[in-house]
Fold this protein.
Amino acid sequence: MFKSGFVNIIGNPNVGKSTLMNELVGERLSIITSKAQTTRHRILGIVNGENFQIVFSDTPGIVKPVYKLHTNMMRFVRTAITDADVILYVTDVVETPDKNAGFIERLERSVVPVIVAINKTDLANEQALDLLAAQWKEMLPGATVMLISARQKLNTAELFAAILDRLPEGPVYYPEESLTDRPERFFVSEIIREKIFLNYSQEIPYSCEVVIDSFKEADDMVRINAIIHVMRETQKGILIGHRGEALKKTGIQARLDIQEFLGKKVYLGLQVKVAQDWRNNEKFLKRFGY
């Protein structure tokens, strides 16, 4: 018997969805920072075994839309609920079960298996965890509730086994050597965006979008030029920094991670351009893949 299917990971920002995705897949596919709304796209991670293929899908964190960007991001989440073979809802020890009442109601009506993974359990005591698990079981009586810590790798193997147990019989959806459906260029842009989240505060990370302008491979080097789009001239100045030092720091950090990811020496050129109010501009959103 061969099992296969799509396991769609949904939940609020900052509950550790991306950390869990990377742990389950065994590769760093989703970028991870302490800031909310880091994940903007739906990212697939494919795990192949002797008798199974699991296609994990990390979706953007659930947010109340403020910009057209948010509205388009939430389409990924709504689609994830409808096309899953297993739904993995990730929460944590701080979040209350009633935070996303509308989404929880949809999960309750779901005809596919739902697993609630309560993450960051290393940050709470046993009594608090028992109470939280009971609340989730009352909220979603048909779901399986599991206590995990993705960062500490606590019960993640048990979670993987529970997911595999609930997968239906199915075909091979992707070639065995596939790790994701995204091209290398996408992950390069995500690495650059991750460094922006890490190096800048306030609105700057949320105002940026990274586009790979060129990606040229040679035997010994990959030459990459990327454009960082911001919404205003003032943001461009902050991103570049005094004498370009801030952008240089971001570029060095990104280049080192990209070299590790690609397994080759990398030349990385970064350019900053203004795309005025791109988060509300359908033309830009379409160009950026939203």
User: Anything to note?
Assistant: Residues 32-36 have pLDDT under 50 and may be disordered. Residues 3-166 form a domain with the Rossmann fold fold (CATH 3.40.50.300).
